Amino acid sequence: MTVDPVHKNQPLLRRFRFAFLGLAAAWRTEANFRIQLAAFLLVVIVLLFVKIEPIWWGLVLLTSGSVLAAELFNTALEHLADHLHPDTHPQIQIVKDCAAAAVLVTAGTALAVGVALVAHLLQR
Question: Rounded distance, CA 9 to CA 105, Å?
């Protein structure tokens, strides 16, 4: 196995650049990522006005970040799978479906935290 010399052992700022290029690629190619990021920003704006306790900030940021990270992993896996095996193959489809399921699970968790937060706010 060979290591990509372009990405291996690069200075920190260059590695950050690679990460931002990944974010930009997801933004350009994935409508779901754009929707999820917009929803996250909207939630943060709303929470700034609601003035919630720090633990709720932590829960919301953790679950929202998990959704975005899962979508990025899903995007990466889909692009890799499509590159390696452009035709539909049952095993590749399982990989893609499981990656999509990971996004669904994290989004469901974030939604559950949102419902719990609304219930908390209604009890104040």
Answer: 34
Model pTM score: 0.87
CA distance 110 to 45: 16
- Does residue 7 lie within any of the structural domains? no
Q: Show the domain range for 89.
A: 12-123
Q: pLDDT by residue (tens digit) across 63-102? A: 999 999 999 999 999 999 999 988 888 999 999 999 999 9
* CA proximity to 68, closest of 38, 112, 42: 38
CA neighbours within 13 Å on the CB side: how many for 34?
7
Spatial contact of 16 and 65, defined as CB atoms under 8 Å apart: no
CA dihedral sign of residues 82, 86, 88, 94: negative
Give the domain CATH number at 16.
Answer: 1.10.287.3610
Are 77 and 99 in contact by the 8 Å Cβ rule? The answer is yes
Residue 6 falls within a domain, yes or no?
Answer: no
